[in-house]
Amino acid sequence: MEAGATPLRCFRDCHPVEKFVDDGVETVTSVEQKKVERSIEEVINVYKQIHNLPEPTLLREQHYQYLKKGLRHLSDAYECLDASRPWLCFWILHSLELLEEPIPSTVASDVCHFLARCQCPTGGFSGGPGQHAHLAPTYAAVNALCIIGTEEAYSIIDRYQHTQINTSVV
């Protein structure tokens, strides 16, 4: 590891104390949590056995370039996620935020324009332009816009409730 570099969380000394504390009450969630922890531990142990380095190195520049590219274009492999496009924006922007990498202003503006096209006139955001709005993509879109944090991004979030008044007499 480079001098001054922070070890990955799973390699830190505190990692074992962050593991699931079994209180003896078995639930679906606790069983799944233990499975995930065992799986991660196996991967780490295999890594330690076959590599000379004490821990993996995060290839920050390659990750940054891949994420930045993903905000502009995704391969056909992502076609199945067409109704999750605000989520893809959020996940990529959040990853850039975690890497403490800047989001180029032109890319941020393009994401804002795209998410604005996902906003429905009756309120909320859809999974993509022309789709129906619902809570999940609305949550992702608002979070993505907040990560961008520019005036342009904030102006896209319509904070006023849209209601359609039914004036017909029953």
TrEMBL record:
<comment type="similarity">
    <text>Belongs to the protein prenyltransferase subunit beta family.</text>
</comment>
<dbReference type="GO" id="GO:0005965">
    <property type="term" value="C:protein farnesyltransferase complex"/>
</dbReference>
<feature type="domain" description="Prenyltransferase alpha-alpha toroid">
    <location>
        <begin position="58"/>
        <end position="164"/>
    </location>
</feature>
<keyword id="KW-0479">Metal-binding</keyword>
<dbReference type="InterPro" id="IPR001330">
    <property type="entry name" value="Prenyltrans"/>
</dbReference>
<dbReference type="Pfam" id="PF00432">
    <property type="entry name" value="Prenyltrans"/>
</dbReference>
<keyword id="KW-0677">Repeat</keyword>
<keyword id="KW-0637">Prenyltransferase</keyword>
<dbReference type="GO" id="GO:0046872">
    <property type="term" value="F:metal ion binding"/>
</dbReference>
<dbReference type="InterPro" id="IPR008930">
    <property type="entry name" value="Terpenoid_cyclase/PrenylTrfase"/>
</dbReference>
<dbReference type="InterPro" id="IPR045089">
    <property type="entry name" value="PGGT1B-like"/>
</dbReference>
<protein>
    <recommendedName>
        <fullName>Prenyltransferase alpha-alpha toroid domain-containing protein</fullName>
    </recommendedName>
</protein>
<keyword id="KW-0862">Zinc</keyword>
<keyword id="KW-0808">Transferase</keyword>
<dbReference type="GO" id="GO:0004660">
    <property type="term" value="F:protein farnesyltransferase activity"/>
</dbReference>
